[in-house]
Amino acid sequence: MPSEDKARRAGAELPNNLILESRAHLSVTGVMDVENFDETVVSMETSEGMLTVRGSGLHVEKLNLENGELALAGEIASLEYEDRANTRGGLLAKLFG
Hints:
Radius of gyration: 14 Å
Helix content: 10-25%
């Protein structure tokens, strides 16, 4: 499994899919890391860039970074992706991008 982690970190893309059910349950694939989470905000790095979920009463029901899966429950108000250039370009891209 270490070789799978290495391939993912080297840029191998995991498919990124979102399934939102009744604004109360969210399933996400392609999750590479969870940056932070609390009852109002969950921020995660996906194969398509940083994804921020906002709402209330949010809690992570399932997290499996090996498979790139996350399940979230609560009252989901918004889903927002940040520009991929900001998350993947490194320091120089952030300074000059």
